[in-house]
């Protein structure tokens, strides 16, 4: 038989080679976002789909095949219990609530249920990358002279590159009072300004980029508004209360002074005529005695 030339050394393998040759026209055609790099881009916390189409055979013939999936060369078992994460659906692998751990190399295998069983007829790999996300963590309000501390929380594979923007200035490295520091092995994840000044009040933006966002022409940014208060800001309420007390005391003092004066004036005008004529009666009595 011609099949013996295909390195078939036993009767069982001759049959296996015959089946493989008969099915050789079936091939896998993966769906890529970036065909030149064989890459599919994933959105975090979303549902993403991997797909391998069966080509080279009629739709009726394609029903004889099935597709199995590997993740980093390990068999990927569909989820059967909550939370449902991985679902096989025909020639698709559906991944729910995508996490960082789901960014991997996936392999689709073309298999058949023929006898004797064949491990796989064809295989194709799909590399995945994570589209960056960004979020700024900040207390929002700082006192003049204190340190401003902002942190840009990012996800993404490959690890995103981070830049900071304030006004018309872009910071990709430390400059003057502005320091960019790494965190969790991510360069420039932290921005610090020390000492802070009133001119630092405004919108700060961190941008994250990797090969996924660049290929898709996506701009991934997060912004926060930083407030810088005067050093005496904490004293202003106290000073305001003291001023109110002083004004209130002054008003009470002036009111009491005017009220006392008015009472004195009333006491003078309220004297009876008999009290006012008392001296004259004394004189008349003296005259009568003479």
UniProtKB/TrEMBL annotation:
What lineage, starting at the top, does this entry show? Answer: Eukaryota, Metazoa, Ecdysozoa, Arthropoda, Hexapoda
Q: Which residues form the Ig-like domain?
A: 30-108, 132-217
The yes or no answer to whether the keyword RNA-binding is present is no
Q: What is this protein called?
A: Ig-like domain-containing protein
- Cite the InterPro entries for this sequence: Ig-like_dom (IPR007110), Ig-like_dom_sf (IPR036179), Ig-like_fold (IPR013783), Ig_I-set (IPR013098), Ig_sub (IPR003599), Ig_sub2 (IPR003598)
Which residue positions does the secretion signal occupy? 1-26
Region of interest: Disordered: 262-290
Q: Which GO terms describe its biological process?
A: cell-cell adhesion
Question: To which species is this protein native?
Answer: Riptortus pedestris
């Amino acid at each position: 038989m011609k099949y013996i030339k295909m390195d078939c050394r036993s009767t069982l393998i001759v049959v296996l080679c015959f089946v493989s040759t008969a099915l050789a026209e079936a091939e896998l055609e993966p769906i890529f976002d970036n065909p030149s790099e064989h890459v599919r881009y994933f959105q975090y916390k979303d549902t993403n789909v991997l797909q391998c189409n069966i080509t080279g055979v009629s739709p009726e013939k394609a029903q004889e095949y099935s597709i199995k999936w590997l993740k980093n060369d390990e068999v990927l078992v569909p989820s059967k219990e909550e939370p449902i994460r991985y679902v096989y659906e025909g020639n698709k692998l559906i991944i729910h609530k995508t996490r960082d751990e789901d960014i991997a190399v996936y392999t689709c295998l073309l298999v058949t249920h023929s006898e004797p069983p064949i491990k796989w007829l064809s295989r194709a790999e799909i590399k995945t990358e994570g589209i960056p996300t960004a979020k700024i963590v900040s207390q929002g309000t700082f006192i003049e002279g204190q340190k401003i501390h902002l942190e840009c929380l990012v996800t993404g594979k490959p690890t995103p590159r981070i830049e900071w923007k304030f006004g018309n200035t872009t910071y990709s490295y430390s400059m003057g009072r502005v320091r960019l520091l790494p965190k969790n092995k991510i360069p420039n994840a932290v921005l610090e300004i020390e000492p802070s000044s009133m001119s630092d009040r405004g919108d700060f933006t961190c941008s994250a980029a990797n090969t996924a966002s660049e290929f898709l022409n996506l701009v991934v940014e997060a912004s926060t508004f930083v407030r810088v208060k005067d050093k005496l800001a904490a004293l202003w309420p106290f000073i305001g209360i003291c001023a109110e007390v002083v004004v209130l005391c002054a008003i009470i003092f002036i009111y009491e002074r005017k009220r006392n004066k008015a009472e004195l004036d009333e006491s003078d005008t309220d004297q009876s005529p008999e009290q006012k004529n008392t001296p004259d009666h004394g004189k008349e009595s003296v005259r009568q005695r003479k």
